[in-house]
Amino acid sequence: MSAARPPLPLAPPIAAPSILSADFSRLAESVAIVDPARDWVHCDVMDNHFVPNLTFGPIVVRAVRKLTPAFVDVHLMIDRPERLIAAFREAGADQITVHFEARHDHELARVIEAVRESGARVGLALKPGTPLAAAEPHLGWLDLLLVMTVEPGFGGQAFMPGMLDKVRAAREWRESHGARFLIEVDGGIAPATARESRQAGAEVFVAGHAVYRQPEPRAALEQLRATIASVAPPVPRPRAPR
Ligand code: DX5
Ligand code: ZN
């Protein structure tokens, strides 16, 4: 791997522009607005099985890796992700997130372990219909919990405000169990919804349309960064005496 990396994974709040909404004929320009000292670059991998859309694989992740020293956050919306963990890691993924609901060849716990063994940080994503409780056995092992705020598959959908309760529950679970995962929201994130998500406890903010489909993507990203930095995260509740 080429350029030196910043310390990982940066202090939250973190903006994560999603290249799904970028112009792939100008990928270098799109990736150039990502500030490695402040942002992650989010890569949405779709397989036309787990979701009804098809995007890209390790080849494009490798291109992104060459274009930036920023943290590369790979969101796998694919069945049987374990078959491609090594390929994505080798392509330069710093973090690999798999879906709770995907088909797996092995138990999910084994898949999570395989991501970690690859050297990447490990994330688990929950579709809107999946309650936090379903993922509880895994939460203690994660670096990232991705709370989907739209149905995965397409950019440009409307944020689902009902997911804020899941963000709050995730934050509370983390506090009460001493876990360490960051909470990422993905889908319909723009300054207003990022603000609400930050108030609920989110720390990483994926944004596709709100950055790349704006007249000035660089300015739109700056506005998103400023918004998330201006909102104080929720105050941790005092722990009940034992
Ligand atoms: C949706 C993807 C998102 C997508 C978000 O399935 O996981 O990362 O890029 O796009 P926006 O921000 O446009 O909703
Ligand atoms: Zn995503």
Strand and helix map with partners:
Layout: E1 14-17, H1 27-32, E2 40-46, H2 58-67, E3 71-77, H3 85-91, E4 95-99, H4 108-118, E5 121-126, H5 132-139, E6 144-148, H6 164-177, E7 182-186, H7 191-200, E8 204-207, H8 209-212, H9 217-230
Parallel strand pairs: 1-8, 2-3, 3-4, 4-5, 5-6, 6-7, 7-8
Helix pairs in contact: 2-3, 7-9
Summarize this structure briefly.
By secondary structure, the protein is α/β, with parallel strands linked by helices. It has nine helices and eight strands. Residues 18, 42, 44, 75, 186, 206 line the site of zinc ion.
What does this structure look like?
This protein is an alpha/beta fold and 242 residues long. Helix content is 35%, strand content 18%. It contains 9 helices and 8 strands. It has helices spanning 27-32, 58-67, 85-91, 108-118, 132-139, 164-177, 191-200, 209-212, 217-230; strands at residues 14-17, 40-46, 71-77, 95-99, 121-126, 144-148, 182-186, 204-207. An 8-stranded parallel sheet has the order 1-8-7-6-5-4-3-2. It is globular. The protein binds D-xylitol-5-phosphate (DX5) and zinc ion (ZN).
